[in-house]
Amino acid sequence: MTIHMLVPANDTARLVDIVPAEITIIIPTYKRPDMVTKSIASCLAQTGVTVPYEILVVDNDPAESGRDAVEAMGESAAVPIRYVADPRPGISHVRNTGIAESRARYIAWLDDDEEAEPGWLAAFLKTMAETGADVVCGPCYPRLPEAAAYARRVYTRDARVPTGTRLWNWSKLNGLFDRQRCFADNPAPFDLFLGLAGGGDTLFYRGLIRSGRKIVWSTEATIWETIPADRVEPRYVFKRRFHQGQITTLVRMAVKPAQPAQAALWMAIGAGQVLVYGPLALALWPFKNERWLAAMGQTVGGLGKVLWHPKLHVRLYR
Predict the structure, then answer these.
(1) What is the pLDDT of residue 208?
(2) Entry pTM
């Protein structure tokens, strides 16, 4: 079926035939109109993509602060851009709404503080075709403020395996998903509690892996995340590491059925981190150097694995 849409060209609206999109790129956003336009621009700049795709922005701001910027870009873009508002608090509502609004065969994800490399989508498609995967994931690297190199490890998400390698543990939502294989049985897969607390993407991946879905890696499907200055301050970095530790254990109990043995194992690993790195962090405290930062990160990350209960959960997001 051909869909007819009115799009402007040279200040004059013209009728063009547009083939229905094979891929929907979903971009959740919240009070970042300037940044989301950069995310959209990186999607419009994709090269080597042989199938039609669309961009769907889902705004979590009740004031719809992203609407004007997104709709302005859509007026002249060669790729369809849609805007949807969902003011319910939490990233999980936004992600589930994005899935519901998409009708494409494949779904890709990009956050509003991220930009994709020009070959991002093409790399996903190539790897999926070559491997028959249900999901293809790629790396995310940080763009950090100056003098914040110590935070690079915290914000870098890279499996460090060759393209085509099957993944058995992953959490970053930079990926291309086969809609039928990943969402048909559960069209709203993102946990609402973790949508506020953080970790919904980790739990989502655990569910896919346990259901036998094939998740593979594509080194070439790269995105970049812009990290603001306040998120490289040691206090925030330690809070993030503690939160990541909590999620590591929590998802083992949140997945259905629960995995108490795995949760206990991660608690033991966390306790070991505290015992090994805690004294080192204490000894390095007077120096406040990168070795101290690394030791503190390991210590609080281990503590998070132990103190994982939902009542103790640290929230990084609204």
Answers:
(1) 95
(2) 0.90
